[in-house]
């Protein structure tokens, strides 16, 4: 917690001390083929190059079912583009983690 406070103080006050006004933008939704991705409550996203093609893919846990979605990135890392997802599977069965 103390480290987080120090980091926040540095991020906020160093630019002010240098005469730079920090600018923040609002959150951005990540789209899947033009539609915002929605997994309900407590989505757990991470980016990882799953298929080893040198672009980071979106791996997204979803609270409601405990399943894990894989969105393969079809764009560059600077402008990721997704077109559908598959669920992680093992032995032909969707992997399900404890949830709830
Ligand atoms: Ca990839």
Please tally the β strands and state the result.
8
Overall pLDDT metric: 87
C-alpha-based Rg, rounded: 18 Å
Side-by-side strand order of the widest sheet: 3-4-5-6
The low-confidence parts are none
Secondary-structure-based class equals alpha+beta
Major sheet characteristics? 4 strands, antiparallel
Secondary-structure element string = HEEEEEEEE
Distance between the termini: 27 Å
List ligands, each type once. calcium ion
Could you estimate the helical fraction of the residues in percent? 10-25%
The amount of beta strand, in percent, is 15-25%
The total count of helices amounts to 1
Oligomer category: single chain
What's the shape? elongated
Summary of the model, kept short:
With 100 residues, this protein is of the alpha+beta class.
Overview of this structure, please?
- The protein has 100 residues and is α+β, with helices and mostly antiparallel strands.
- The protein is built from one helix and eight strands, in the order αββββββββ.
- The strands form three sheets. A four-stranded antiparallel β-sheet has the order 3-4-5-6, with no helix packed on it. Strands 1-2 form a two-stranded antiparallel sheet. It has a two-stranded antiparallel sheet with strand order 7-8.
- The longest helix is centred in the first third of the chain and has 16 residues, at 2-17.
- It is elongated and about 55 Å long.
- The mean pLDDT is 87.
- Bound molecules: calcium ion.
- Calcium ion is lined by residues 49-51, 53, 55, 57, 73.
- Residues 49-51, 53, 55, 57, 73 line the site of calcium ion (CA).
């Amino acid at each position: 917690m103390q480290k987080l406070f120090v980091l926040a103080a540095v991020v906020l006050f160093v630019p002010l001390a240098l005469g730079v006004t920090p600018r923040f933008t609002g959150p951005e939704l990540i789209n899947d083929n033009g539609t915002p991705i929605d997994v309900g409550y407590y989505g757990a996203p991470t980016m990882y190059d799953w298929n080893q093609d040198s672009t980071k893919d979106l791996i997204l846990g979803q609270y409601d079912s405990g399943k894990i979605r894989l969105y393969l990135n079809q764009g560059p890392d600077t402008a990721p583009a997704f077109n559908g997802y598959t669920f992680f599977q093992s032995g032909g069965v969707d992997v399900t983690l404890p949830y709830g």
